[in-house]
Amino acid sequence: MSTSTSRRGSGPALPRGDGRAAARQSTLREHNLAVVLQRIVAAHAAGSPLSRAAIAGEVGLARATVSDLVDRLIQARLVTELEPLTASRAGRPAVPLVPAARSVVGLGLSVGIDHLSALVLDLTGLTVSERVVEVDLRGCDPERTFARLADLAAETVRAVTLEGMHVAGACVALPGLVSRESAMLRYAPNLDWRDIAVDEALAGHPGLATLRVAAANDADLSARTEVEERRRRDGRPAESQNFLFAYGAVGIGSAVVLGGRVFEGMHGWSGEIGHVVVDPEGRPCHCGARGCLEPYAGRDAMVAAAGLPPTTTTTGLADAAAVPGPAADAVAEAARALGQAAATVVNVVDVDEVVLGGAYATLHDRLAPGVLAELERRAVIARWAEVRVSRALGGPSSPARGAALTVLDDVIADPSAWLGAAT
Known about the structure:
Layout (H helix, E strand, L loop, with lengths): L2 E3 L14 H26 L6 H8 L3 H13 L3 E3 L15 E3 L4 E9 L2 E8 L4 E8 L7 H21 L3 E9 L2 E3 L4 E5 L4 E5 H6 L9 E5 H17 L8 E6 L3 E7 L2 E2 L31 H4 L1 H7 L8 H8 L4 H24 L3 E6 H4 L1 H15 L9 E4 L6 H16 L10
Parallel strand pairs: 4-7, 7-11, 12-15, 15-16
Antiparallel strand pairs: 1-11, 2-3, 4-5, 5-6, 8-9, 9-10, 12-13, 13-14
Helix pairs in contact: 1-3, 2-3, 6-13, 9-10, 10-12
């Protein structure tokens, strides 16, 4: 995932040993803490919480070691115990372990053409707070926009902190190229923003002074949400998930998911399907080129081609396209172009499913037949395997939710960094 973590602010310092042997012991303990927490979170997501003894059996550690690690995670408010199960034989009853609710949380922020949002997610996967501000950001000054986002983020942090939660960090979902080396938005063509240090843009707010901030592309983060939703709702293991995620909005983004992970590319900028060429001499694009997918299959492009008012919502477009006429023709043209671009990606990365997210999820019933027809016509894999087009499960908050998930991913991968912090 093209997520970039800032150096400003920090979580609690990692423990340091006095010598090489101590450092190795500390590193092993940190690794084992992460392994145990990962198993507890995964088992909870699967609906089958594990006991200390069950975890010890799964990960190959001594029960006493696992018990000590679990006690540390409970003390850090990362894990909690459920009521003991009724014993089926002699001995102590098993005590199921689950991620702690409303304790350590991640803050996901989202900047879209038509909204600012803040979403807080806890380790159980529960959304504990969500705030959305509808606003038209076309032509808006980025400094003012990020000042408003900082106010929204600070209000959210203050509210959940007063309820006893510890915000582990924030991640901002952005509609453009985000540098992997720093929290830098390099280019957002539909906002006409360039080279914005996202961390610095939020740093001036006193309510965010110590918050660790990251930034990532909104389509990548929506794909991260999709992986989690498929695992949570349908029981599909992350490692078995492989698909192209097409995220429709005013612009068009995408992400390639392989084995449940978003493929980043060299600079973290992969997935710019909106600028795949579908007609070399075609319509002009905001990026400066001609014939990109976006002027044919972006939401505003479809609305304009349909002859509808610019303020028409995606739902309004879908309703209009349900009957023969200009709207139906515009969406059909978009489906053909999207299918052509998707087939190009499918031929390169070898996946057999295209997931329609964002505005495309709302338009799924109108778009899917045309996209599938192009895939079956152009994707080489279709000669030997079934290709599929499906609707995303994540919903409109998927960029912010994916952003919050990435914050919690870091906590789960390194829980030792938060021992003693969530008090």
